[in-house]
Amino acid sequence: MGLLYPRLSVMTLALSTKSDEGFNSSAMSISDSLGGALSLATTGIVFAAFTTPVQSFAGVFAFTAAIGVAAVLVAPRVTTRTP
After folding, report:
1. How far is CA 20 from CA 10, 16, 26, 79, in A?
2. Which of 29, 2, 24 is nearest to 13 (CA)?
3. How far is CA 47 from CA 27, 37, 63, 71, in A?
4. What is the DSSP secondary-structure string of the chain?
5. What per-residue confidence (pLDDT) applies to 3?
6. Is-contact 63 42, C-beta < 8 A?
7. Cα separation, 3 vs 36, whole angstroms
8. Residue 32: CB partners within 8 Å, gap ≥ 6?
9. Neighbouring residues of 56: CB distance < 8 A, sequence distance ≥ 6
10. Does residue 20 surpass a pLDDT of 90?
C-alpha cells in the first residue's frame, strides 16, 4: 500500500492539465477515503451476516477477492496518452 499511493498521486498529476490538477488531486483524496470506509463497512456487514466463524471469514475473503477482480477488470482503462 505504501508503494502504491505515491505512484498513483504522481501519475494522476502527470496526466492532469494545469487547470485540473487541484480537482483531480482532491477527487483522488475523496475517493481514497470513501473507498476505504465503504470497503470496511461492507466487510463488517458480510462478516456479521454469517453465523459461524468459518462462514464469516469465507464471506469476507470472497468479498475482498471480488474487489480484486473488479480492480483487475478496470485497470486497463489507465493508460498513458501519446501525443
Report:
1. 14, 6, 10, 18
2. 24
3. 30, 15, 10, 22
4. -TTHHHHHHHHHHHHS-TTTHHHHHHHHHHHHHHHHHHHHHHHHHHHHHSSSHHHHHHHHHHHHHHHHHHHHHHGGG--PPP-
5. 61
6. yes
7. 17
8. 5
9. 46, 47, 48, 49, 50
10. no
pTM exceeds 0.85: no
The 10 Å CB-count burial string (b at 16+, else e) for 62-73 is ebeeeeeeeeee
Please tell me the distance from the alpha carbon of residue 25 to that of residue 9, in angstroms, as a whole number: 7
Angstrom distance (rounded) from CA 50 to CA 71 = 26
Q: How far apart are CA 46 and CA 58, in angstroms?
A: 10
Could you tell me the residue ranges of all domains in the chain? Answer: 4-77
Contact 13, 24 (CB under 8 A): yes
Q: What is the mean pLDDT of the chain?
A: 85
